[in-house]
Amino acid sequence: MATNLPEHFKCPISLEIMSDPVILSSGHTFDRPSIQRWLDEGHRTCPITKLPLPDSPILIPNHALRSLISSYTLLPPLHQIISQPETLISTLILNSSSSDSKIDSLRQLARLSKRDASFRRRLVDSGAVSAVLFCLDSSSSSSSSEGAIDRVVNFLVGAATSDCRALAATIITSLAVVEVNKATIGAFPGAIEALVMILRDGKGREKKEAATALYALCCFRDNRKRAVDCGAVPILLRNVESGLERGVEVIGVLAKCKEGREQLESYGGCAKILVSVLRNGSSRGIQYALLALTLVCLHSKEILMMTLQEGVLEICIGMVEDNSEKVRRNASNLIRVLRGGNHHRIS
């Protein structure tokens, strides 16, 4: 089952799924038995950054990650559930199905869609999105892509509860698996604005799902300016500062457009927020924080100087041997920018 779980669930030392994740003072997370063995052997450097540690390093339990790993491992392996979409969809569209069974099917489809990218595509191809929309509004029979988007955006804006808004955002992410839908959804009046509003006013899970949907949409170039025009950049930075790391992935993508960079440059504390992700974030969060800093520093001498003052050059040097190839490449790009050199590829 470990092969189906996200990479950041694995200990960087043992490469096994962590049972007791703890945070080292360097900001990186390890499985307690693995990092304890490392320390017991006399090492006083972080295994990832190679930066020195205190004589008596403190291991802080990573309760959030432990809970997330537990919620994944409670699910059966994918090969046991791969045949379930059709059964779940049938439950959604049958008039004889109870409300409780429909809600349970919706929850299972949402959980399955998060586990594996290829499985999300299978859900879309198997009709899961249409079935969910049918369940949300059984009075309508529209099955066209534009009709589906109309219904889900209306539901996103008008849903009465946080769980419903989170589900609507998840559906948008699933629809955006199909490339052409990214453009269609992004151009649809109110779609991106609704996601930004959830990031501004929503709660935990709905914010995370909204950020995921916004990231999926902004992978399409034309949607980036739309998101910036809706005020996404300052809202995302505030969310990242308060702990929503998923937001930094969107920031990394928005930094690829001129309008996004200008908003980042004008936000006081932007460099400090992104550097905090470098020190304390997951591998994926670090990857996108490096990307955003590189793009902004290329166009703003002021942000470049702030970034240097935050000690980022030393942090990046410690990341050039990171386990993640994308982190290594993005760290090398930022080092070249901070040192005044040129770089060939940003991704």
UniProtKB/TrEMBL annotation:
It comes from the Eukaryota. It is an enzyme of class 2 (transferase). Keywords: Transferase, Ubl conjugation pathway. Residues 4-79 form the U-box domain. It holds the Pfam family ARM_PUB. Pathway: Protein modification; protein ubiquitination. The keyword Zinc does not apply. Transmembrane segments: none annotated. PROSITE patterns: U_BOX. Coiled coil: none annotated. One of its GO terms (molecular function) is ubiquitin protein ligase activity. One of its GO terms (biological process) is protein ubiquitination. It catalyses: S-ubiquitinyl-[E2 ubiquitin-conjugating enzyme]-L-cysteine + [acceptor protein]-L-lysine = [E2 ubiquitin-conjugating enzyme]-L-cysteine + N(6)-ubiquitinyl-[acceptor protein]-L-lysine. The keyword Transferase applies. Its EC number is 2.3.2.27. This is RING-type E3 ubiquitin transferase. It comes from Medicago truncatula (Barrel medic).
